[in-house]
Amino acid sequence: MAAAAMLIGDPVSGAPTVAREKLEEIFEDVRSHPLYDHELYGCLNCGICTATCPSAYYYDYSPREIVQLLLTENLEGVYDVMQEKIWACAQCYTCAARCPFHNSPGGLVMILRETAIKHGMQSAKDVLKPFTRVLMKLITTGNQLAPNMITPDAFADWGPNIAKIKAPLNILRKAIPVPTLHTMDTAWEVNIKTSIELYTIWEASGVLDQLETIDPNLFDVVNDLMDEKREEYQEWVDEHPAESSAV
Question: The pTM is what?
């Protein structure tokens, strides 16, 4: 009976119960974020943030709810909004611009999202799943989404409108009068040294640890690719010592 009292759950829902200690750990990770005290000062409960929020107009989402749950340290409520609602925010920061208390609900949502990723919540996995190819390209090349990646087959999860993309992207891309935009494979060229440096930063800053939590398969693929790049670059350095020391 005592153990059951330490678990939090909705008797009407089929969702599994959550240990009180886990809820406290999640909230402490949110509250200890370096930006937390810069985003949350107080709340008049005036509702201006929600009244001007584009996402609140279309979804079951309220910036004021986020602020109130954090201010009152409602552990169950914070955990609940992290399962779905925080992903409805468009990050336009209209809420921050309008709040008379200078709160930033959008900034708080970003903290909640980071915490959801850190704890490997299913909501984070579901949201990031359609962007697997984009993440792999960014992390392994230091580049962004390339035009030839935008196809109905590659991004079926982006909804029915993706099927409407039938433009001759290769022709349109080369028609743009900027030399760096004449490629379909990348947005611009990033040399291998820069790519490895970026990867090392993500590795040292914990970004790859978060990736492993959300998508272990992608993490393994990225690691294998970067090991190959590091070996390739080291071979070049060994063969061109004078040139590498000047770089």
Answer: 0.75
